[in-house]
Amino acid sequence: MPKKILNGIVVSNKPDKTITVLVERKYQHPILKKVIKAKKKYNAHDEKNKYKNGDKVSIRECKPFSKLKKFEVIGEVK
Predict the structure, then answer these.
(1) Measured distance CA(78)–CA(76) in Å, rounded
(2) How many CB atoms neighbour CB 47 within 10 A?
(3) Candidates 2.60.40.10, 3.40.50.720, 3.90.960.10, 2.40.50.140; correct CATH number of 5-76?
(4) CA–CA gap between residue 44 and residue 13 (Å, rounded)
């Protein structure tokens, strides 16, 4: 099964080696046919504490690092 890859913006980098990434997606409601924006926050592993608030990053699904941390940072999105 392929690993999920998401793009988002860093909203927090306070914990050590962890960043919180806000991922926004758009989808069409099946009945109303209206385009809806959905937002979700993911905790991702950042080994070198490299990324700061406001950076656009790409994250990949991986083995769990902790209870809530199941993604790792691939790199910065240009």
Answers:
(1) 6
(2) 8
(3) 2.40.50.140
(4) 10
pLDDT per position as a tens digit, 15-50: 999 999 999 999 999 999 999 999 999 999 999 999
| Token output for 29 | 């409601």
Using CA atoms, how far apart are residues 60 and 62, in angstroms rounded to an integer? Answer: 6
As a whole number of angstroms, the distance between CA 4 and CA 17 comes to: 21
- Distance between CA 50 and CA 18 in Å, rounded? 10
Q: What is the pLDDT of residues 41-75, one digit of tens each?
A: 999 999 999 999 999 999 999 999 999 999 999 99
Ranges of each domain in the chain: 5-76
* pLDDT band per the 50, 70, 90 thresholds, residue 1: confident
